[in-house]
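Working notes for the structural subgroup meeting. M.R. asked for a predicted model of this chain before we commit to crystallization trials. I am recording the input and output together here so anyone reviewing the notebook later can reproduce the run.

Input as submitted:
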Amino acid sequence: MKIVGHKGGGSSVPENSRAALKHALSLGLDAVEIDIWPTADRRFVLFHDADIARLTGHAGWTMHLTSDQLRTLEIGSRVSTEYAGERILLLEEALDLLAGKADLFLEVKRTRHELERYTWVEERLSQILHDCDAMAWTTVISFDHRSLLNLQETSHDVRLGMLYAGEWLSLEQEMEALNPVALLPHWAQTTPTLVNNTHSRGISIYPWVVNNDEWMQEFSHMGVDGIITDRPEALIRLQQARGRPTNKMEAEGSHD
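Returned structure, recorded in token form:
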């Protein structure tokens, strides 16, 4: 079972930051989940919110600012003075840092009321993933399945993951249309039946965001393929206590 760091390396480090990705790699996590927003100058930055206030203390909307404007903003000191000076990353910088050392779940953020602003997103994202040789280890995920369909039409070799929070009329029809490699349901919607049905389609399943020790163990018993968590260190400890490999390197080494 894979351990996936939510927003990079979990809640102990600034979210979606260089420090978060370095922390994830230092822990030997199998994968990280990060969020990207399109910017006014048609680039992508690692950021979770549409509104920049929570992390930066400044007013503004991510999609209305340029990448240069966003990269001047400090995002680390709200977690700890240790991370003072941490800045917003470009997607290309994050891909260069990861370089396939961990798998990537890349969540595309967008607001649905300004669709004209986003007509370039899928083509540009596909180009960046190809240019950075990141296709093989990246799964693009989103709640916006129209965007995922557009991406699928733009690039046939892209790996897609469906974020799910129980709001769709027909989950099976959505999976049929998108043919994803992964389903990422909210933990409260993750049941043994959903796990079994998803696996019967040849699709992996990764519940989010699982931070409770008991639920970590419960989902492990269900046979999920991985868990997305803010507490990767805790999940590592639970896996070690059960005598299971905690990352890809250990798993490979266990067969020697």
